[in-house]
Structure formats: structure tokens, C-alpha cells
Design a protein that fits this description.
6 helices, 122 residues, mainly alpha
């Protein structure tokens, strides 16, 4: 079983960055280089996010609670011209995990209970 943060780093974080990058560039009018600086990635990465070559967006991140957090973070980044923080990412991750738990999400349903260990054979 993988830890929440491992799953987050591999699957959710790129999608979060992609959604925020799209909001910053397409909706809020920032240049890709400005968005890259605020998200702590390269301009090329932002280009990949915008052109959907990286950071595939999952249905989880389109959930109402999670989407509102993404909007709040994007607005704060633009307003304060501040970089995304670990607290921002943790807030979004917590909401995503709560949504998954409440909906009996895919990850929760895929987990198999541990089977009792068989006695070892000599």
C-alpha cells in the first residue's frame, strides 16, 4: 500500500499544478514564464500543462470542494504574487482525500484488506 503523499506526488500534484497553471495563464492572463515562477516549475512545464501533455486532470480534482480550493489558491497566488506553498498543496490534498472517502472513491475501493499471514512452512 502506498502512503497518501506518495500517491499525491505521483498522480495528484502534477494535475493540481496543471489546473492552477491553466487558471493562471488562460483565465487570469499571466504569461507562462510568470506562472512557472509562481509554481516553481519551468516555462516548458507550464507549456506541457497548458497543452495537456503533462498533469492529466482526474475527476477527483473536478469535484466541487477541490475545485473551490484550486480557485482560492490560484486567486491568492495572483493577488499576492506569491508562490504556491506546501500548505496550499496539503489543503487541496486533504479536500481531495475527504472527497474520496465520502464518495467511496477509487483508491479506497481498490484497497484489499490484509489477509492473515499463513504459517511459514519448514
Amino acid at each position: 500500500m502506498r502512503a497518501h503523499c506518495e500517491t499525491f506526488a505521483r498522480e495528484v500534484l502534477p494535475a493540481i499544478r496543471a489546473l492552477i497553471a491553466q487558471k493562471l495563464v488562460k483565465e487570469m492572463g499571466l504569461k507562462q514564464s510568470e506562472a512557472a515562477k509562481l509554481l516553481g516549475v519551468t516555462q516548458a512545464t507550464i507549456s506541457h500543462y497548458i497543452n495537456l501533455r503533462r498533469g492529466k486532470v482526474t475527476k477527483l480534482l473536478q469535484a466541487k470542494e477541490v475545485a473551490s480550493s484550486l480557485d482560492e489558491v490560484a486567486a491568492r497566488i495572483v493577488k499576492e504574487r506569491a508562490s504556491i506553498t506546501p500548505d496550499d498543496l496539503c489543503q487541496i490534498c486533504r479536500k481531495a482525500r475527504m472527497h474520496l472517502a465520502a464518495s467511496g472513491g477509487a483508491r479506497a475501493s481498490r484497497r484489499q484488506p490484509k489477509s492473515p499471514q499463513q504459517p511459514s512452512r519448514p
